Amino acid sequence: MALLDKDGVRLTVDDTVATVTLTNPAKRNAQSPALWRALTEAGRSLPGTVRVVVLRGEGQSFSAGLDRQAFTPEGFEGEPSFLDLARGSEELLDSTIAEYQEAFTWWRRNDIVSVAAVQGHAIGAGFQLALACDLRVVADDVQFAMRETGLGLVPDLGGTQPLTSTVGYARALEICATGRFVHAEEAERIGLANLVVPAGELDAAVQDLTTALLAPPRDAVVETKALLRGAVARTYDDQRAAERAAQARRLRDLAGLSD
Question: Are strands 9-14 and 2-6 parallel, antiparallel or unpaired?
Answer without folding.
Answer: antiparallel
